[in-house]
Amino acid sequence: MIRINENYLKLKASYLFSDIAKRVTAYTTAHPDKPIIRLGIGDVTEALPQVCIDALKSGADELANRATFKGYGPEQGYAFLREAIATHDYAARGCPISADEIFVSDGSKCDCGNIQEIFATEGLQLAIPDPVYPVYVDTNVMAGRTGANLDGRYEGITYLECTPANGYVPAIPGTSSDLIYLCFPNNPTGAVATREQLTAWVAYAKAHKAIILFDSAYEAYIRNPAIPHSIYEIPGAAEVAIEFRSFSKTAGFTGTRCAYTVVPKALQAFDKAGNAHSVHALWNRRHTTKFNGVSYPVQKAAAAIFTETGKAQVKAMTDFYLGNAALIRDAITKLGFSCVGGDNAPYIWINTGTDSWQFFDKLLNEAQVVCTPGAGFGKCGEGHVRISAFNSRANVETALARIAAALRK
Ligand code: MLT
Question: CA 386, CA 389: separation in Å to the nearest integer?
C-alpha cells in the first residue's frame, strides 16, 4: 500500500497566496463588473529592463544557430553570470565571495525550500521569525522537523517575534538554535536590519555552531546607505551564513525566473559524531543531482543588469516601485494607521489593530483592492496587513483613493 508523507497533514490545507487567489477569484466571479487592483502577492508589473530584453533576444538568436547553440549548461550557472555576481554584488561591497560559491537557480523560493534537505531532520533547533514568508516554515513541516500545529504555531520551532515593540526586528533568542532564518529587507514587514543587529546574529550563530539562512531577495530596494545589502558585509559571516538572492524583485524576473544562492566554502556543518563537513560540497551534490541549470537566454538577461546601462535601468525600476511605496505609506499614515516598510523595501506593513482577514475582506469587498492579511504570515502578523508596491502608478493611486473612501465610511 502506497503511503503518504504524513508531515503534509500538519500543514494548512493550502498555501497563503493560493488561499488569497481563491477568495479573489470568488469575488471577481460574483462581481464581474467591479475591476480589482492587486496589491497582494509581490508580483512585479512593469516591463523587463531593455538590457534584459536585448540579452534574451540575442541569447535566443544564439540558440537558433548550430555554431552557437547550447544544450545543458553547468548546473551551477554559466561562469559569465557567476563572475558578474561575484564582482558586482559582492566584491564591490567588500564581501569575500568568489564565483564558485554562487549557485544560479530558477528562484529563491525553491532554494529556500530546498536548502533544508541537506540538514538533519531530527534534533535540529529551528529559529524562524514570526511573521514570516511561509515557505521557511512549511518546508520544515514537510521535512518532519516540527510537531503538530497548536493554536497557529508548530511544536519544535523557536518563533522570533517581530512586533511593534521591537520595530519588527527580532531579538536574539535566549536559547540555542541550529538553523536560523532571517530575511532583510523583510518580507512581509519591509523592516531592515542594521549592521549592529546583523553582527549580533553572526556572533550568535558562531557561538552555537549554527547556520543562518539569509534571504536578501529585496536588497535592491535598500536606499539607506548604512544598511547592509548582504550578510557577508559582516566580518565572519561566510563561516555561518548562506544567502539567497533573486532577480525577481530586483529586475522584474518573477515570470522569467532566475536567482542565486551563495554557499561559502568556509561553511561547515556536523554529523552525529561531531565531524565537520563542507556545506558547499553537500549543496553542490544536491544541486547537480536535482537541477539542470537555468536557460541560457535567461542567464544572459540576468547578467545584463550588471552592465552600467543595466544598473541604471534596474535603479529606475526599483525607484519607480519605491515611489509607489512612498504614496502608499503617506496615504495610509494620513488615514491614521501606523506602518513600517516602504522606504527600503517594496512592502508596507500596516498596523490595523483589527482581525487581518476581516480587514482583507473589507478592502476586497468595499475597495476592490487585494492586500495580504498579516495572519497568513504567522501569529504576530495578526492585527496587520501587507500592501505591496508592485503595480502601475495609476493603479496605486486609484487603489489608495478607493481604500480611503472605504475606510472613511
Ligand atoms: C510575496 O508576495 O510574499 C512574494 O511575492 C512571494 C514570493 O516571492 O514567492
Answer: 10
